[in-house]
Write a structure and sequence with these properties.
Helix content: 10-25%
Shape: rod-shaped
Number of helices: 4
Number of strands: 8
Structural class: alpha+beta
Strand content: 15-25%
Distance between the termini: 153 Å
Oligomer: single chain
């Protein structure tokens, strides 16, 4: 059957219709049917492409982007008024390459009677040795020569059990007074029961009682390292002086 196509919408219509049956547009003028344009097989019009799927896809992309942005920033941002997440694990150690540990503090000098102790060894024997020299020099200054002699070991230069030895010692010390006594060091001696003590002091004496090489000297500065021995009661006794030096003052 012969048909005509609507110029507006492309709908095929029979020649008995002057207007399009789909859209109502007038397609044929009054006149013989033979003059009408016949389209036995009209080409269908290409359907309009819907934009809805594109819009839906774009919306989905925006939602995903927004969600990804939320999770991306979630670990970096804390909502106002909420506490930050707790920190777990062990913090890495911080090493200061310029750090220098403090040096050990040396013992401060201290006084034991008339003896100033400057020994910095921390040796447990220092206190007992200082007590020895405080007793010895203190007794000389007090003119108590038997007491001063009692600080000698019987095997040494003065035997405190020998009255003649004590008398000679008393005569030699009869004009002497000692001051500025400093115990400078205490170390172990050559034998198991001995130790060495370095002592400096100043002696004042009458002329004729000074050092043998300067017998008229009345003021002498001494630097003496004494050999000491441990007594039965644990105290210390003078055996002899060694490495003796002296200068006039």
């Amino acid at each position: 059957m012969a048909t005509w196509s609507c110029a507006e919408c492309g709908h095929p219509n029979g020649f008995e219709n002057r207007a399009c049956a789909l859209c109502g547009a007038v397609g044929l003028e009054d006149g013989p049917a033979e003059t009408a344009v016949v389209a036995t097989s009209p080409e269908p019009r290409a359907p309009r492409r819907s934009t809805r799927p594109v819009l839906l896809a774009a919306a989905a992309v925006l939602l995903l982007a927004g969600g990804a942005g939320y999770w991306w920033t979630r670990g970096e941002q804390t909502p106002a008024g909420s506490a930050p997440p707790p920190v777990t694990g062990t913090a890495p150690a911080i090493v200061d390459e310029d750090y220098e540990p403090p040096l050990p503090t040396a013992p401060e000098p201290y006084q034991v009677g008339l003896v100033l102790v400057t020994d910095q060894s921390g040796d447990y024997r220092v206190g007992g040795v200082a007590a020895l020299f405080n007793g010895h020099f203190g007794s000389i200054n007090d003119r108590n020569y038997p007491a001063a002699a009692s600080w000698f070991d019987p095997s040494g230069v003065v035997d405190p059990t020998d009255p003649a030895a004590v008398a000679r010692f008393a005569q030699d010390m009869s004009t002497t007074s000692d001051s500025d006594v400093v115990l400078r060091s205490v170390t172990s001696g050559p034998d198991v029961d001995t130790l060495l003590a370095r002592v400096t002091f100043r002696s004042m004496q009458q002329a004729g009682y000074g050092p043998a090489e300067r017998s008229t000297e009345t003021c002498t500065d001494w630097d003496v390292t004494y050999v000491l021995r441990t007594a039965a009661d644990g105290s210390y006794r003078i055996v002899r002086g060694t490495e003796v030096t002296s200068l006039p003052c």
